[in-house]
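1st attempt posting a full record on here, be nice pls
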Amino acid sequence: MKCLKKYLSVFMTLVLILTGCADPAAGGQPALREPVSRSSVCSPVGKGRIGATEVLPAVVVPTEYAHFYKSDMVLEKINVEVGDYVKKGELLASADTRAAKKRKKELEEELAQEQKKFLLNEKITAGKQEEMELSGERKASKGQTEKTEIAVMKENARYEKQLYQQRIADLKTQIQAEEDKIREGALRACHSGYVTYRKSLSVSPEAGANENIIAVADRKEKYLELTDLSTKKYPYSDYEVKYILSGGKTYPIKEIPYSRRELAVADRNKTYPPVRLSCPDGAGLSLGDTCLVYFKEKNTPEVPVVGNESLHTQGEDYYVYVGKGNFGSSTVVEHCSPCWSIFLRREEPEAL
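the predicted structure (as tokens):
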């Protein structure tokens, strides 16, 4: 009889343990027992933005300035090597401008001949017009024939002058183009910095229009360049929020737009330049450093969050243990959403 009572007592104890642990008022709260895993993870509640976030790697690189010719040229000499430091205005390369100089001389001679020819014709026309006017005064009683001829001569002279002015303007435009080629033949640095690229003359001395001859990098002007990215599939230009994390702080960043010239060169080469993003001051990033860039479609408000490492699962549901007082004391299980556990601090924790 004593054994029977003993077994009944043990059985009732087990029943109470199995059925009495869950609080009926909690409504759907899982009957998890502590501990549920061999390792316990305690994460402090922080603030963060939730929602879909795209993350892409980026590297800190210096701003580079390309130096090229606007038209096809043949290079004679390049004065710098990779690694050299150059100052703004320094001569980087020289092109063969002999053909441009020859053509300019020919155009200038043609311009001088046009001017001489026009002045001579103008004097001849003026003499004829004066003679006809004198003759017309003597023969005024015979009719208006001389006046009509004088009017026609004046109109022809005006028309010839317009053609002359147009020819002169065209010649001056051509001369200016050749002068630009001659001046452009001296390729000078548009910015101070270190040479990072130099065209090899041993491969070909010919330089096409907009072909990069020298690249100069300013190490003080840094920006972020996205890596491992196909720019043809880059969909984040219109995203509202772009930022990086550094030293536990959030730094907003912006995309750096490309100039029309850069886009024209990229289109000519059938490529698109890598996506550039501003490198925020105070982030402590140096050249060559890598970081992650976060893209969000909308600027959502910050909410209390804990990390995924604090999540526990039971079936398809996610739960987190919330400490009461000292983290070494008993815990209360709260229901939370997948991926990020979200809850408010309360005096008496409740299931979300």
